[in-house]
Amino acid sequence: MYWTHHFAHHETLRRARSWLIALGYTPDRMEVHPDGVPRLAVLVSPDELAEIEMVINAVERTDPEGWPSFWDVARQDRVYPTAPAAADGGIGRPADVIGWHPPD
Question: What are the extents of the domains in the chain?
Fold first, then answer.
């Protein structure tokens, strides 16, 4: 199954992708959509779903504006790229620090 998440900022999307790669999720299992509202789709098994959600929630906590609201998403122009986006090269261990809190 695919797990999809919309981000408020491109930098947050980049950080989430970087952390997922560091955890062993290969780039071929991810679809990154930077046009319009930044979006990430990851091919996951049901066993991996909790881990993915935990990483994304930790990354989102460090984004000052958080998830885009309904109005932000509705305001975006629909963009359909004509060429595939270039893959990031040389992604290694994430340098960004993120915080995680257990669910209340």
Answer: 2-66
